[in-house]
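Appendix C. Worked example: Bacteriochlorophyll 4-vinyl reductase
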Amino acid sequence: MSKKLQISAPDEQDLYATALNTINLASKIPFVRVDRNEFLKEQFQESPYLEEILKLGPQAVFSQATLRKHAKKIVASNTTKTAAVSFASGIPSNILMMIPAGAADVVQYFGFAMRMAQQISYLYGEDELFEPNGASGLSDEAKIRVMAYLGGMFGAAGAAALIANTSQKVGAKIGKKVAAKALTKTFWYPVLKKTGTMLGAEVTKKTVEKTITKAVPVLGGAVSGGIAWASFRPMGTRLINVFERQLNGEFDDIDELSPEFADKLEDDPAEPSVIDGEVIDE
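Step 2, the predicted output written as structure tokens:
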């Protein structure tokens, strides 16, 4: 009697690790990094309030209507560029060697998404995402912010509130509280895990899509560009909407865990931590 081969679906921890690993790899692509000050100078070079914009953020100077106008232009520009670019062409060879075969296009896709997310976030008052010392990678705190941004772009449940609670400027009070604690001691850790799991599923889905489109080179290129065109505009719009809701104070009422319960979470050995996409048993 023959036995059927069973292939198990990835579990939540695997998907979460996939999301973090993709973010980590994408962050090493040179074009992904957006310098906040240079970006804002380019956007508002003719404004007489440039000094205030750089110091306080555009959200402190302009109306929401003006911010949205600039944000929509950014989304349109990124959508056009992403659809036109040949995927994987912008990834340096030393990074390509770190990426499994067939996954380079997906890593670059998420790199484009991270670039657009930074630009939108800077319009709405967020601080620099990458470390200012020239390091190419992201800090652990920045990876959490990226996961929140991407979750918001893909419509992950709870990601909008997660963005507000990891915010560096608009939600400064809450953001500093989160940053000062071990992640497992925050109310939002389960939301982060769910967001990461959802993103990991998206990475897996898009890896399959790219593999299929590459099977027919000419048609595959058209399909790949079409997928980017169809997805980037709504992704950007969702993130714009999240930051507008944040400016309107929709996420100001935050529930915090009691110190006793948070300590129990910290001491629970059943929950592994994930660093750069690798599961580390504690």
